[in-house]
Design a protein that fits this description.
With about 475 residues, the protein is mainly α. It contains 25 helices and no strands.
């Protein structure tokens, strides 16, 4: 009992007040729409669980578990529908990719890639910034945003520690690039995976529609950062001139053996190639759409587990983020319940009533709604909540194809606005805190707002030009 009382003693009163008030507000608004009992329960539980998880992020899984239990106890959700809504396809995809990434990380493959990229940067401050931002975006697109930010921030802290300068500006630049790059492919973050499965989009669809927009958005972001942080970059440039031995110069100093490097390259390239070609392969073998998008990570994870029989259990237990995946399962089940009881349908029809059947108006409406939800809550949560709405919009005969891309880019690009906008942001802030460097909200928002607004405008204009002209 003492441990439980200690937990509640440590919960800030302000945060508790926010949870209670936000839950009451949502419940009060629901009463205006004459929702049924089950709809009210589903919405109230969702509001409470979401607000509590965000205000007390450390306890997000207990709150999510409690919310799911309430849905069962009130008879709003049953076991078969819970299994249906849990999005096990997405969870299994992430498990497979986490095992493959964990295997490559433990072999030192990503550290090797970091060294290769930095050879292009030399001792020039501006070039260092550009290389780090491109590397952050590229690694997020090809690996995932969390792995990317872990590698990039570790590298940045090493550079800035040697140069004895503030790491925060360079960390922020890396975070912005990571979030943009993570939208370029389906494997960049859970948002892309969710949208791919729910929208029936393929890896090649992402390459065709999202990758070019992300490249242009990245270029815009690099230009913004070079201008905004010009004094900081000059200081970095001056500091680098005194550090002649910043990085290893020879392969002997690298932490990966030639054999491990060869195996890692094969695993990395084969996984990437199969993911890119999954749709043509599905058509060749007459498989349902996105069957291989799930099958390939599971197949490759089985290969790496066979290659590491002694460490197989370690890879599964330590390299898979079970805490986050458990939260996702219960989040998806809760959102699915909103769809099951008809709340999502009401929200979708409300948006259609506001915008009419005009796709351009709907597209413009989605940007601030999804963007602000991502920036103030979490981009996975925002997309998980609105994916059923996009599906319902398509069900009434409106072309919802551009809405998937607008939702993807709003979630990832406007996720740059605040520290809680994406998982990469939270991880980066945590790594900096561990090194004694705190990122203030004002410092983040000042540059984050500029990057978010300009990059989402790039996305909107390019999607509009391709689809509406």
């Amino acid at each position: 009992m003492s441990s439980v009382s200690e937990i509640f003693k440590n919960l800030p009163v302000l945060n508790i007040s926010v949870v209670i008030l936000s839950t009451l507000l949502i419940t009060g608004l629901a009463s205006l729409f004459n929702f049924s009992f089950t709809q009210n329960v589903a919405l109230t539980v969702f509001a409470f669980k979401t607000a509590a998880a965000l205000m007390f992020w450390r306890y997000r899984v207990p709150f999510a578990t409690f919310g799911l239990a309430m849905l069962f106890l009130f008879g709003v959700l049953d076991v078969p529908h819970m299994v249906e809504f849990a999005s096990l396809d997405i969870v299994l995809f992430l498990i497979g990719m986490m095992i493959v990434i964990g295997f490559l990380e433990e072999r030192g493959f990503f550290e090797y890639l970091t060294q290769v990229f930095l050879k292009f940067a030399g001792q020039d401050g501006k070039r260092i910034v550009i290389v780090i931002m491109i590397f952050s975006a590229l690694s997020a697109a090809l690996i995932d945003e969390v792995t990317s930010i872990l590698i990039s921030v570790s590298l940045i802290l090493r550079i800035t520690s040697k140069c004895k300068i503030n790491a925060i500006p360079l960390v922020l630049m890396s975070v912005f690039a990571t979030n943009i790059g993570s939208a370029a492919t389906v494997v960049g973050n859970p948002v892309g995976v969710l949208i791919a499965f729910r929208g029936g989009l393929t890896f090649l669809d992402f390459i065709r529609w999202s990758t070019p927009i992300c490249i242009i958005a990245l270029l815009v972001t690099i230009l913004i950062c070079l201008k905004y942080y010009s004094k900081y970059i000059s200081k970095l440039d001056n500091s680098l001139k005194y550090e002649k031995e910043m990085f290893p110069k020879s392969t002997e100093e690298q932490s990966i053996t030639p054999k491990d490097l060869t195996i890692s390259w094969i695993i990395f390239l084969v996984t990437l190639a199969l993911l890119i070609l999954h749709h043509p392969l599905e058509e060749l073998f007459h498989l349902e759409k996105n069957t291989l998008l799930l099958g390939i990570p599971l197949f490759m994870s089985s290969i790496v587990l066979w290659l590491e029989p002694q460490k197989a259990k370690h890879l599964v237990e330590r390299r898979v983020d079970w805490w986050t995946l458990l939260f996702f399962i219960m989040l998806f089940a809760s959102v699915g319940t909103l769809q099951y009881v008809g709340v999502i349908d009401i929200l979708a029809r409300g948006l259609i009533n506001i915008a009419g059947h005009d796709l351009l108006t709907l597209t413009a409406l989605f940007i601030p709604v999804i963007g602000l939800l991502s920036a103030l809550l979490d981009n996975v949560l925002a997309v998980a909540t609105f994916s059923p709405i996009v599906i319902e919009i398509g069900a009434v005969g409106i072309n919802n194809f551009p809405l998937w891309w607008i939702m993807l880019h709003s979630a990832c690009f406007i996720g740059n606005l605040t520290v809680i906008g994406s998982t990469a942001n939270i991880v980066a802030a945590g790594l900096c805190e561990r090194k004694g460097e705190r990122i203030s909200l004002l410092e983040w928002v000042k540059i984050g707002a500029l990057v978010s607004v300009l990059t989402i405008l790039v996305s909107f204009v390019l999607i509009y030009v391709q689809l509406f002209i």
